[in-house]
Design goal:
- The protein has 106 residues and is mainly alpha-helical.
- It has helices spanning 2-13, 48-63, 69-86, 88-102; strands at residues 32-34, 37-40, 43-45.
- It has a three-stranded antiparallel beta sheet, with no helix packed on it.
- Helix 2 runs antiparallel to helix 3 (69-86) and helix 3 (69-86) packs antiparallel against helix 4 (88-102).
């Protein structure tokens, strides 16, 4: 854990402390989730659970007769932008799905 000690010294140099309970050693061979983003083999992806949640929202929006549909579309566009910033391939796939289900161009 020598690398952790180096990081702790750097953090301490700037006047901060790291709680030992919050330190997690994550092997590089496994998928790591950092602030809601999956990291595997130095590639970033939006976790499947998040993608499934957004897909469900698209399907619910397609069924909706709500007057606030435009507001939900703006929210969906923001979520698509988030996905594209993390993984362009995932974002484009999700966008094509939403356009097909909602019958609109995003």
């Amino acid at each position: 854990l020598a690398s952790i000690q180096v990081i702790k010294r750097i953090v301490a140099r700037y006047g901060y402390k790291i709680k030992y309970q919050k330190i997690k050693k994550m092997p590089s061979r496994t998928t790591q989730n950092v602030t809601g983003i999956a990291v595997h083999n130095k590639r970033f992806r939006v976790p499947t659970s998040k993608i499934e949640q957004y897909r469900k929202e698209v399907l619910e929006l397609a069924q909706s007769q709500s007057l606030s549909k435009e507001l939900h579309l703006d929210s969906l566009k923001g979520k698509l932008a988030f996905i594209k910033n993390i993984s362009r391939a995932q974002g484009l796939k999700m966008q094509r799905f939403a356009e097909r289900i909602l019958n609109i161009e995003l």
